[in-house]
Design brief:
Elements lengths: L9 H11 L4 E3 L7 E2 L2 E2 L6 E5 L12 E4 L3 H11 L21 H15 L1 H20 L1
Parallel strand pairs: 1-4
Antiparallel strand pairs: 2-3, 4-5
């Protein structure tokens, strides 16, 4: 988990994961806008989880998202986060227990998208606030 915008030692973590054959699941909720070795956090693992809870950089009041470059994993996640319906012309067979988006969750989606459009401004404001805290409490 990257904490308060500070990425973990990804080199060390990736080394351990590779040595023991463990897939890396990256928690990037508190590091949107952060980089590790000139690469966005949330881009190192097989999958990354990002929470949009009220205390995160981008918030929709709840929910979250995952990111991955693995097409099979992405398809499975999309299947599970929608209705779990098996594609068919007329049958309605659901192979998984899932939750459908409600109108409120749809609105949350667009709230998150709007914040992502100004993510650089949000991150800069948080950095300025961190600088003010540092100046106030460490001087």
């Amino acid at each position: 988990m990257h904490c308060l915008g500070h990425p973990v030692d990804m080199d060390g973590l990736l080394d351990v994961c590779q040595r023991f054959g463990i897939p890396l699941v990256e928690d990037a909720a508190e590091s949107l806008g952060s980089y590790y070795r000139e690469r966005h956090t949330g881009r190192f693992g097989l999958v990354s989880a990002i929470s949009f809870n009220g205390n995160k950089i981008v918030t929709t009041g709840g929910g979250g998202t995952i990111t991955t470059d693995d097409e099979q994993l992405a398809d499975r996640a999309k299947h599970l986060t929608t209705t779990g319906k098996v594609p068919h012309a007329w049958e309605f067979y659901h192979d998984s227990v899932t939750a459908e988006l409600s109108h409120t969750e749809s609105q949350r989606h667009w709230l998150g998208v709007a914040q992502l459009e100004v993510l650089d401004d949000i991150v800069e404001a948080k950095r300025q606030l961190a600088d003010r805290y540092r100046e106030t409490f460490l001087s």
